[in-house]
Specification:
The radius of gyration is 22 Å and the shape is flat. Strand 2 and strand 3 form a beta hairpin. The chain is 35% helix and 21% strand. It has two domains: 188 residues, no CATH class; 132 residues, no CATH class. The N and C termini lie far apart (50 Å). It is an alpha+beta fold and 345 residues long. The longest helix has 20 residues. It has eleven helices and twelve strands. Bound molecules: iron/sulfur cluster (2 copies). The site of one iron/sulfur cluster has 14 residues, from helix 10. It holds the Pfam family Fer4_22.
């Protein structure tokens, strides 16, 4: 890893240099909060932002996309060539970079890479930015408060300047051409350490740190807690829509009015939707809220860990704000903390 320091005043030049070759997507302020959007000018960016309402996952896995078209008259199938836009996601927090790393495990690095995802991922540079946690952030519990890989540049604010971690030649060349990066001094490294400590100390310590939550979920799989938690679910699927690591999708064939030709579409789906586990004949493997919500929490805090050695949840806190029924991983952690206190009495 290469480290350099740039002045904060140089940031607009860096953004402008990216804009010459790439579409730049960055956090901007909207009425309801902050959102990742394509910017027209470096002035549009709000880098001191709390977590955005939705994550940048749509730039890798769009809510809807065509996978292929077919024509029954000629009995032919045409692979759909997705239009790939060279893009920079500028100003991603560490949790969102770690979320993309998890999507990579599923769609890029597995035995069957997804060509649509891979094409977008390979055409995207990621520039990360350091952040301060809000009260719903718990990324530090899962080690997602730092991005160790998965970005091209990472900018750590050290007061009027940025310590830049560089991990790709492409981004390094643009940084070199647009700014005057200098070698980091010992003073810069000390400021970096202070900034890291300030962030670590700012996390909401009312959120329980239950590192063995996966094991506890197995032990309390049939606890009435899941009935109570799932019984509140409205099946609105807002949690999955905002989550940076929810990746379930449905495949739908859409026919032209003639009924002879059409397209195969991939659309986001959510395991909290009632029909998600419904199969032919009408049987539903997860027909009630208890089973659906428990399944979602298991995928986030248990199953992915067993397969990939890390939580699927990165602790971004988006679902904490999005769910009107107050169903989120913090509720699960608090349940196990209460359980632990009961057992200790
Ligand atoms: S858990 Fe909350 S956000 Fe998710 S579907 Fe249920 S009510 Fe909606
Ligand atoms: S489950 Fe909630 S807190 Fe965890 S990554 Fe998804 S939206 Fe963020």
């Amino acid at each position: 890893m290469l480290y350099r320091v740039i002045d904060a005043a140089e940031l607009p030049s860096l953004v402008s240099a990216f804009m010459e070759t790439y579409e730049v997507v960055a956090p901007v302020k909207r009425d309801q909060g902050y959102a990742f959007e394509t910017i027209e000018s470096p002035d549009d960016i709000e880098l001191a932002y709390p977590t955005t309402m939705a994550s940048p996952k749509k730039y890798f896995l769009p809510p809807e996309e065509t996978l292929m078209s077919f024509d029954a008259r000629t009995n032919s199938v045409t692979d759909f060539a997705a239009e790939i836009t060279p893009r920079v996601i500028f100003g991603a927090h560490a949790c969102d970079i770690n979320a993309v790393n998890r999507l990579d495990l599923v769609f890029k690095d597995g035995r069957y890479p997804d060509p649509y995802y891979v094409a977008r991922r390979n055409a995207t540079l990621i520039v990360g930015i350091s952040c301060m946690p809000s009260e719903t952030c718990f990324c530090h519990l899962w080690g997602s408060d730092e991005a160790r890989f998965g970005y091209d540049l990472f900018l750590q604010d050290i007061g009027g300047k940025y310590l830049v971690s560089i991990s790709s030649v492409e981004a390094a060349n643009i940084l070199e051409a647009a700014c005057n990066p200098r070698v980091a001094t010992d003073e810069d490294r000390i400021e970096f350490r202070h900034a890291t400590r300030r962030r670590q100390e700012a996390f909401n310590d009312a959120i329980p740190d239950i590192q063995d939550v996966a094991m506890l979920m197995d032990a309390f799989h049939k606890d009435p807690f899941w009935e109570e938690l799932g019984g509140r679910c409205l099946s609105c699927t807002a949690c999955s829509a905002v989550c940076p690591t929810c990746f379930c999708f449905d495949i739908q064939d859409t026919f032209d009015p003639s009924g002879e030709a059409g397209r195969r579409e991939r659309v986001w789906d959510a395991c909290t939707a009632p029909q998600f586990a419904q199969v032919a004949g009408g049987h539903n493997f997860r027909g009630d809220g208890r089973n659906r919500v428990r399944h979602r929490m298991y995928h986030k805090l248990n199953g992915f860990l067993a397969n990939h050695d890390r939580m699927l949840c990165v602790g971004c806190g988006r679902c904490v704000k999005a769910c009107k029924a107050n169903i989120n991983p913090i509720e699960v952690l608090e349940f196990f903390e209460r359980k632990g206190m009961q057992d200790a009495q």
